[in-house]
Amino acid sequence: MTTDSNNLSEAPFQIIIINALLDEETPLNPRFLFHLSDLEGEDLQSLKDAWPRIPVEQRRALLENLEDLAEDDYLLSFESICRLAIDDDDPQVRVLAIRPMFTYEPEDLIPQISQMLETDPDENVRAVCASTLGKFVYLGEIEELPEHIKDGIVERLLRVAHSQDNREVRRRALEALGFASSEEVPKLIADALETDETDWLVSALFAMGRTFDKRWIPQVTSMLDHQLPGVRFEAVRAAGELEISAAAPQLIELLEDSDDDVRFAAAWSLSQIGGEDAREALENLLEAMHNDEEADLIQDALDNLLFNEEMRLFDLMDLTDDDEEYFD
Known about the structure:
Blueprint: H1 13-22, H2 41-50, H3 56-72, H4 79-85, H5 91-98, H6 101-104, H7 110-119, H8 123-141, H9 147-161, H10 167-177, H11 185-194, H12 198-211, H13 217-222, H14 229-241, H15 248-253, H16 260-273, H17 276-288, H18 292-317, H19 321-327
């Protein structure tokens, strides 16, 4: 089945999109995907009615494609489609429906996602629920979500972290709790460190970076030269999130790391820490770049460094007279 997407506005949604999704033999024309952004009204209802009849592979492929598209264009929103897919019978579809909620921040779905964290039969769904709830913990900590809602989420995450659930679920719960100001979180992070298991070490470092707690500086800096790239990567990220100025020289060295992810994480962390040495190192790296995509990543880091420097300058300009006397 083929349909010219230019005629989409002239033909019923049922004919163009629904029939294409129901046709398992023919992949959906990628150009049609843009028309699914901000879907509402009769078109959304048509998709809801047809959803159970759409082959599961088509449902999975659709959600994967929409997620990729939204990552490339922040003006697109497929939240309405993710909402209708969150109750899907297929676990993978549920995962793909919940994962973008980290971006959409739908407060009305917090009770459902919280419940799924503990009761969904699939461990991958429970794990992605834990990760998604981390965003709401953060919103609660910055007072953009009512405290009682935030506290309820933290309580569930703590319950899961202390449970006998699948280790992946418990790790994601720990990472989500990194944002929480709960007194129980530092012990959870310390316990994860003491296991000497790589996956728990990675999650502990991830959570450390979210705590904004300077107590973790020694642990983070000690992992910057870890033999495993995955551990170095999370340590580098945490160093940037915690703005560990003393780590800047080591991060500059890591701009030449053998692992691509570590190198670019080091560039971004330097942009968070700032300083003349960081700027010079990033500018030199940019000049040496021959790959356009990699050059864009370094340019993004330089832009972020400039933004952070400007923000710090504004903060200094906002000092009160008492603050100025203190610094004098």
